[in-house]
């Protein structure tokens, strides 16, 4: 390939394009990119490639800006109707002012100002909820390294990461953050932590010379390195293959920006509610206006009809509802924080209650993210080990005897094996703030903890067996050895003249001992003897077969298995003599460990099942480990299918959709797989919560109905893409948050019933006035706003903190697509609204004639309107007390179980009386003073609402039917 013709870079790892880099030899990859391992690219080639491929940066596509978000709030149909009402009301006030028809003391445009203030307040509330700018891409950009060491024109240079191009030869070493995707040319003991990209915490041992099959999953491409990952150990030379948006990190950015946010169930229901209310209001307005015109046989009363229409339009819109919902959701977030769940997007509180499927990562969420030894095999005997986390506390049991704990000191082979675990180890076990923690590799930490369970403490054994040399672990050797000097200690008989009894049968009088650990097959192949009881004996072929069979059995349970051996030495072996020194070893045994499940997760999974929620495990780990954990936790049953990333890659979207309800375990998955799984579940009508902590999880978190990031191990990218953050990274917290979501939704439905029942009553009362021939509008827009905001709003807020029902997690989730009016809520609102209207219209008819007949002592004949206003407000107080329970009578309930309702009723009643009896408020709200007898009649009529609802409960109880 000539230097002037640019190579074509592959667009994706799935095979589109010229090369699938992990399947190519190094020389072939260099040839495709027209580069040289020793001299790199020339200056001219770099300039050409920069122009062709662009800078090595993540590109951001435009989203909504702050103004667009704010303007979108005022596209709500209910707010649009209120804006129209405000302007028409302002126009009528202006006409009245021009014609000198304003009443004395009346404030000009007060209705218009009040309505527009409510519109602006609701708009601001919506803006605050939506205006969290998506910072996921910004967090992705932070993962780029600022400077990169490359070879160009045969010289070593440090260049800006954005100037790296395909074909560059990049040098990496421990501590470096990798700036582009690349194919390894050469490496020395290279380990790269790819947890941000693959989700797995363990560093990956890289190999440059290996060629891999095309279908190899992302986590297994050990001859490639990826942008945004970190070199933990060693060094390497890398051929840059992909930069910018074509890196694996860039593909995640593309997926992240291509995911469109769907409205939450609550937002969809509120839209539906607005459409129904506005449509119903307009139909009713048309009936009243047409009926009024027909009744008057002309347009003489058009202004009165317009005023009635404006009042009806204001009455139908629950102006206080957005504020009440916002406060309810905010209270829900506070309760969730106490349960270790941080809500980033307010509507997610209610959305959690609709979840039907929880897709959870394994490491750290279902498990403790702490390797714990489960089983050891020594002296051809299997032992089970108990314990939690890194605490050096646990029991040992003979396999098959679960009830009888053994004393490990009575088994010399166990002591010898655990000494090897403590000595051949670089990790440190320590206690921090009452918690046991590990400094070093989690696998080695599990071995130190295991030894500590029988009192073999690493610090003490460091003095008994001080390390004098070692053969370190490498990815090629797959083992490590430690050479220690045998020191005499006080055994209680002759001070410091004997070795520790645990070593007596191991050393054969030699001054040094070598412990070796690593891949069981490789360690066993180097063994010629086996430690049995207190001595070594020749290792037979039958014993080899037994050990290998036990290794396979432990691995099939998802355990990570290590083999241990030792060798007495007369002298310290020379450096680089590992091949000869690590021969004729004496076999000690196997140790099997697992990232153990969190103990509380089993109960949480069971609670999910009872609540009709299906848990699904999606992990980058191997299928055997995934199956073992999932089966143990009850997520899957024995024999259930495990779908791997390779199998999923070969499936079409249609095939995946057919399988997605049948599979509960996904293993070795790549970022795009997680996104496809979520999308397939959603196409099946499932409502999906997805957990994740790595960068690779961000697109799926954003696509999911509820994206849940990890607070402890999660990357900034995953947190910014999520709706909720788990502060303790615990699956059980998701279940607790789901319960809170169900409680919030139940309470939202309760106060919607409460608010809209009275709104329907208000509309019907206003509509009846002109049809009954009563002069004027019984309620002004300002009075209606008072009712909707104060007399409805305060009790509604109190109802929002009703405690949960006892069976809230014993039933399936309600469909997220169910109508807001479903399960009888719509019929309840209409029924109660009609009862409200009948009670108030009867009072209104009587009050109208009564007020005009009795005007002694300067009583205003228009006070019938104040009686209507007061009765409607007070009736809502009885409604609030009765609606606390759908089925239990008020006298059957503890009146102090929700003191907020009691307080809201008392405060609202006092405020309503102030509007009638405090002169400044009376003047502003246009009310009239009522004599005590008339006020008592208002209380009497309003009490009928409470009586009706209680009688309904008795009726439904008699019929054996539960109300909504």
Class by SSE composition: alpha+beta
Mean pLDDT: 85
Alpha-carbon distance between the two ends: 75 Å
Q: Shape from CA axes?
A: elongated
- Characterize the main sheet: 11 strands, mixed
Alpha-carbon Rg, integer: 37 Å
Given the structure, what is the number of helices? 34
The helical percent reads: 40-55%
List keywords for this structure.
disordered N terminus; 11-stranded mixed β-sheet; 8-stranded mixed β-sheet; 34 helices; 964 residues; elongated; alpha+beta
Written account of the structure:
- This protein is α+β, with helices and mostly antiparallel strands and 964 residues long.
- Helices cover 46% and strands 17% of the residues.
- The protein contains 34 helices and 28 strands.
- The strands form four sheets. Strands 10, 11, 12, 13, 16, 17, 18, 19, 20, 21 and 22 form an eleven-stranded mixed β-sheet that branches.
- Strand 10 and strand 11 form a beta hairpin.
- The radius of gyration is 37 Å and the shape is elongated.
- The chain starts with 25 loop residues before the first helix and ends in a 5-residue tail after the last helix.
- The N terminus is likely disordered.
């Amino acid at each position: 390939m000539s230097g002037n013709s640019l190579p074509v870079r592959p667009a994706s790892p799935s095979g589109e394009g010229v090369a699938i880099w992990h399947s190519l030899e190094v020389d072939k990859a260099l040839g495709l990119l027209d580069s040289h391992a020793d001299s790199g690219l020339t200056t001219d080639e770099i300039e050409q490639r920069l122009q062709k491929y662009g800078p090595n940066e993540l590109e951001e596509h435009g989203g909504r800006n702050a103004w667009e978000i704010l303007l979108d709030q005022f596209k709500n149909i209910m707010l649009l109707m209120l804006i129209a009402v405000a302007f028409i009301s302002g126009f009528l006030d202006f006409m009245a002012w021009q014609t000198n028809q304003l009443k004395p003391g009346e404030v000009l445009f007060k209705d218009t100002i009040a309505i527009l203030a409510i519109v602006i307040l609701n708009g601001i509330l919506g803006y605050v909820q939506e205006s969290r700018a998506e910072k996921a891409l910004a967090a992705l950009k932070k993962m780029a390294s600022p400077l990169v060491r490359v070879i160009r024109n045969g010289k070593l240079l440090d260049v800006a990461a954005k100037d790296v191009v395909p074909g560059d030869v990049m040098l990496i070493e421990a501590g470096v953050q990798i700036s582009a995707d690349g194919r390894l040319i050469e490496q020395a003991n290279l380990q790269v932590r790819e947890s941000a990209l693959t989700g797995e915490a363990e560093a990956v041992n890289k190999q440059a010379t290996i060629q891999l099959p095309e279908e190899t999953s992302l986590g297994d491409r050990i001859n490639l390195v990826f942008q945004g990952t970190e070199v933990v150990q060693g060094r390497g030379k890398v051929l840059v293959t992909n930069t910018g948006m074509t890196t694996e990190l860039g593909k995640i950015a593309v997926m992240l920006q291509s995911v469109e946010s769907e409205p939450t169930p609550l937002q969809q229901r509120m839209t539906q509610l607005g459409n129904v209310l506005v449509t119903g209001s307009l139909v009713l307005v048309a009936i009243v206006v047409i009926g009024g015109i027909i009744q008057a046989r002309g347009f003489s009363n058009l202004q009165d009809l317009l005023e009635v229409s404006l009042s009806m339009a204001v009455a139908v819109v629950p102006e206080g509802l957005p504020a009440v919902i916002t406060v309810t959701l905010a209270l829900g977030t506070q309760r969730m924080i106490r349960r270790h769940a941080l809500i980033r997007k307010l509507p997610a509180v209610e959305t959690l209650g609709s979840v039907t499927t929880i897709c959870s990562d394994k490491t750290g969420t279902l498990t403790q993210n702490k390797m714990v030894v489960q089983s050891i095999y020594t002296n051809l005997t299997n032992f089970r080990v108990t314990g939690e986390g890194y605490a050096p506390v646990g029991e040992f049991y003979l396999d098959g005897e679960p009830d009888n704990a053994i004393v490990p000191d009575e088994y010399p082979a166990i002591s010898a094996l655990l000494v090897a675990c403590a000595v051949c180890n670089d990790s440190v076990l320590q206690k921090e703030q009452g918690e046991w923690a590990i400094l070093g590799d989690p696998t080695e930490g599990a071995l130190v903890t295991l030894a500590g369970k029988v009192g073999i403490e690493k610090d003490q054994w460091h003095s008994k067996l001080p390390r004098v040399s070692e053969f370190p672990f490498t990815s090629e050797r797959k083992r490590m050895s430690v050479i220690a000097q045998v020191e005499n200690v006080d055994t209680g008989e002759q001070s410091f003249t004997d070795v520790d009894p645990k070593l007596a049968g191991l050393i054969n009088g030699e001054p040094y001992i070598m412990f070796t650990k690593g891949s069981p097959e490789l360690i066993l192949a180097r063994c010629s003897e086996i430690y049995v009881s207190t001595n070594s004996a020749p290792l037979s072929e039958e014993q080899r077969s037994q050990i290998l069979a036990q290794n396979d059995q432990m691995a099939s349970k998802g355990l990570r298995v290590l083999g241990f051996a030792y060798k007495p030495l007369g002298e310290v072996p020379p450096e680089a003599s590992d091949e000869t020194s690590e021969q004729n070893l004496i076999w000690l045994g196997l140790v099997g460990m697992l990232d153990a499940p969190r103990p509380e997760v089993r109960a949480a999974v069971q609670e999910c099942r009872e609540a009709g929620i299906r848990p699904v495990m999606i992990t980058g780990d191997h299928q055997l480990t995934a199956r073992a954990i999932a089966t143990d936790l009850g997520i899957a049953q024995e024999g259930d299918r495990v779908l791997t990333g390779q199998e999923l890659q070969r499936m079409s979207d249609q095939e995946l959709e057919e399988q997605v309800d049948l599979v509960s375990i996904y293993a070795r998955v790549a970022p795009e797989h997680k996104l496809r799984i979520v999308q397939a579940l959603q196409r099946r009508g499932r409502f999906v919560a997805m957990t994740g902590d790595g960068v690779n999880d961000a697109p799926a978190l954003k696509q999911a109905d509820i994206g849940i990031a990890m607070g402890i191990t999660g990357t900034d990218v995953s947190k910014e893409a999520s709706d909720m953050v788990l502060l303790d990274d615990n699956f059980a917290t998701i279940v607790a948050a789901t319960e809170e979501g169900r409680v919030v939704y139940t309470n939202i439905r309760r106060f919607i019933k409460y608010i809209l029942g009275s709104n329907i009553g208000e509309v019907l009362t206003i509509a009846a006035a002109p049809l009954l021939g009563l002069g004027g509008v019984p309620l002004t827009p300002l009075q209606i706003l008072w009712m909707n905001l104060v007399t409805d709003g305060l009790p509604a807020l109190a109802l929002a903190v009703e405690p949960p029902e006892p069976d809230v997690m014993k039933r399936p989730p309600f469909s997220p697509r169910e109508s807001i009016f479903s399960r009888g809520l719509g019929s309840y609102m209409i029924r109660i609204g009609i009862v409200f209207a009948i009670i108030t219209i009867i009072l209104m008819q009587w009050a109208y004639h009564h007020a005009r007949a009795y005007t002694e002592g300067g009583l205003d004949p228009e006070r019938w309107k104040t009686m209507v206003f007061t009765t409607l407000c007070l009736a809502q107080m009885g409604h609030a007390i009765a609606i606390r329970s759908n089925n239990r009578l008020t006298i059957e309930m503890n009146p102090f179980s929700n003191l907020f309702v009691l307080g809201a009723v008392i405060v609202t009643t006092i405020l309503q009386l102030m509007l009638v009896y405090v002169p400044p408020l009376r003047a502003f709200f246009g009310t009239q003073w009522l004599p005590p007898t008339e006020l008592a009649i208002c209380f009497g009529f309003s009490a009928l609402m409470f009586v009706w609802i209680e009688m309904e409960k008795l009726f439904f109880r008699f019929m054996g039917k539960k109300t909504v």
